[in-house]
């Protein structure tokens, strides 16, 4: 939505009404400020920007090694990584994802008493949503992302997208619109730190942000499926960003070399103003009434607008900063130190195994006479062969590496907690202390995760109430319209210690009825 305009930048054919142009300018300013937050160095991130911290965390997790060699004389040296930080992250992730977390619900009736039956129904509906969406894979990704990124987000979205199919008949092929099951229904998309723009870096509650902008690059065909019927669709082009210039009141087309075959979808959402407006490559895709229309899509049970994304992170930095400190951030310097120590250890081991030698005298000493069990006599009595380097203290270096590894265990979980057997020399007391420390650390991380899951459960409940439990208009064979409610089936549901297939049916005729315990 933003970009640099030069003298040779082509003017766009897109020329919307002035009201749309003014609103686009307003959104571009929010977009620019949100991008500035991502690229500003923050003291809370050790004078790194969010983008830099995310890049460094991902490099650490992926065990990135720079294999470029500029000096051929350095080619013999070992370069690599122990991947210690990555291994710790995988171990923590395994502990956090022993099971999929499904939010719990507690409902109250009009007398402010706990409604156990309705709470159970909400639990079953949320479980159905989990099994009939991409929630499971998204949960694995967002819980892994929180270990390496300063933040990532889990969205709760409901969409109804149609696609055209071809139907063969006696007259030939005809086209018909049907529901696209891949793009429709409940979806739990994962957003990276750079895909959500916020307005205040010192407000942790995302619902208190003045505005958020969700942005992602999508395939042109997917964009057409969602927005192809909009009157401005004809101005959308893959690999092009259309930017408004306030100085001359015109739009310009800027080539996006990083995404030549995709389109940027940017959704500007203001909760307080109840406004949600999508843009495709900078092209307005909202309602004709800019300020009177475009309501926020996600609503709670009262009909109030809410942001439908929840931030996830590893550890809070302080009591105000929005972004988190990742596990990779916590372990970065120890990981770098361990790799440097290991590099020194391996290089010296290579030298000790193939020790360079110093030769004095007139006799020739080379690889022709240096081989196992060789016997050599020198004609020149002054010829001497001696090692070029003194003996190394590799034991001291190994001890230093062990100290560094112990420091990394303090910042995460012990190898024993990750499933490795302790050394034979390890005392039972030391093993117990390591286990206890790991549990304390995981409890802290688990509470941070639980805080985000509570918020996400609220979004799931909103979708269940507003979309899943409501009736749909269905056309019968006779052409009449009727209301149709969903039937939700939960296979292998544990009830009373036994496995059953549980069926949830919504029926408006039961409203106000008193149900027996058997009916419930």
Describe the protein's topology.
Elements: H1 18-39, H2 50-61, H3 84-96, E1 107-108, E2 114-115, H4 116-131, H5 135-148, E3 152-155, E4 157-159, E5 162-169, E6 172-179, E7 185-187, E8 190-191, E9 196-197, E10 212-219, H6 220-227, E11 240-245, E12 250-255, E13 262-270, E14 275-280, E15 283-284, E16 309-312, E17 315-316, E18 324-325, H7 327-353, E19 357-360, E20 384-387, H8 394-411, H9 428-468, E21 472-475, E22 481-484, E23 487-495, E24 498-505
Antiparallel strand pairs: 1-2, 3-8, 3-16, 4-7, 5-6, 9-10, 10-13, 11-12, 13-14, 14-15, 17-18, 19-20, 21-22, 23-24
Helix pairs in contact: 2-7, 3-5, 3-7, 4-9, 7-8
Description:
This protein is of the alpha+beta class. Among the domains are: 97-130 and 435-520, no CATH class; 330-434, no CATH class. It contains nine helices and 24 strands. It has helices spanning 18-39, 50-61, 84-96, 116-131, 135-148, 220-227, 327-353, 394-411, 428-468; strands spanning 107-108, 114-115, 152-155, 157-159, 162-169, 172-179, 185-187, 190-191, 196-197, 212-219, 240-245, 250-255, 262-270, 275-280, 283-284, 309-312, 315-316, 324-325, 357-360, 384-387, 472-475, 481-484, 487-495, 498-505. The chain has a five-stranded antiparallel beta sheet with strand order 9-10-13-14-15. Strands 8-3-16 form a three-stranded antiparallel beta sheet, with helices on one face. The radius of gyration is 31 Å and the shape is globular. The mean pLDDT is 86.
């Amino acid at each position: 939505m933003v970009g640099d305009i030069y003298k040779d930048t082509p003017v766009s054919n897109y020329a919307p009404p002035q009201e749309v142009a003014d609103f686009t300018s307003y959104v571009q300013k929010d977009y620019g400020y949100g991008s500035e937050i991502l690229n500003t160095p923050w003291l809370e991130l050790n004078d790194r920007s969010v983008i830099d911290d995310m890049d460094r965390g991902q490099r650490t997790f992926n065990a990135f090694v720079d294999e470029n060699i500029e000096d051929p004389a350095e080619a013999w040296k070992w370069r690599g990584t122990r991947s210690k930080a990555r291994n710790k992250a995988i171990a923590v992730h395994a502990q956090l994802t022993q099971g999929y977390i499904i939010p719990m619900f507690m409902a109250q009736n009009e007398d402010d008493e706990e409604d156990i039956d309705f709470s159970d129904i909400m639990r079953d509906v949320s479980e159905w949503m989990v099994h009939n969406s991409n929630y499971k894979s998204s949960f694995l990704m967002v819980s892994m992302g929180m270990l390496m990124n300063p933040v990532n987000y889990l969205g709760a979205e409901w969409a109804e997208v149609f696609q055209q199919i071809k139907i063969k008949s006696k007259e030939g092929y005809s086209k018909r619109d049907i529901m696209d099951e891949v793009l429709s229904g409940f979806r739990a998309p994962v957003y990276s730190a750079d895909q959500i723009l916020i307005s205040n870096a010192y407000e942790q509650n995302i619902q208190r942000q003045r505005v958020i902008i969700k942005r992602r690059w999508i395939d042109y065909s997917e964009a057409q499926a969602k927005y192809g019927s909009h009157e401005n669709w004809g101005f959308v082009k893959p690999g092009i960003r259309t930017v408004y210039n306030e100085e001359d009141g015109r739009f310009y087309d800027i080539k996006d070399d990083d995404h030549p075959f995709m389109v940027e979808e940017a959704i500007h959402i203001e909760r307080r103003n109840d406004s949600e407006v999508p843009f495709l490559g900078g092209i307005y895709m909202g309602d004709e009434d800019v300020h009177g229309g475009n309501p926020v899509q996600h609503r709670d049970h009262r009909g109030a607008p809410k942001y439908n994304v929840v931030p996830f992170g590893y550890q809070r930095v302080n009591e105000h900063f929005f972004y988190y400190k990742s596990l990779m951030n916590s372990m970065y310097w120890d990981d770098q130190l361990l790799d440097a120590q290991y590099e020194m250890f391996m290089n010296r081991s290579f030298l000790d195994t193939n020790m360079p030698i110093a030769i004095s005298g007139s006799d020739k000493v080379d690889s022709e006479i240096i081989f196992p069990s060789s016997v050599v006599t020198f004609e020149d009595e002054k010829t001497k062969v001696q090692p070029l380097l003194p003996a190394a203290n590799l034991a001291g270096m190994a001890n230093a590496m062990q100290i560094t590894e112990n420091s990394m265990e303090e910042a995460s979980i012990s190898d024993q907690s990750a499933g490795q057997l302790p050394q034979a020399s390890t005392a039972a007391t030391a093993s117990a202390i390591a286990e206890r420390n790991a549990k304390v650390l995981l409890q802290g991380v688990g509470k941070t995760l639980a805080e985000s899951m509570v918020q996400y459960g609220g979004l799931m409940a909103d979708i269940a109430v507003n979309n899943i439990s409501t009736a749909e208009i269905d056309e019968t064979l006779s052409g009449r319209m009727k209301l149709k409610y969903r039937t939700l089936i939960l296979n292998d549901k544990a009830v009373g210690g036994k496995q059953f297939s549980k069926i949830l049916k919504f029926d408006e005729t039961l409203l106000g009825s008193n149900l027996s315990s058997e009916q419930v």
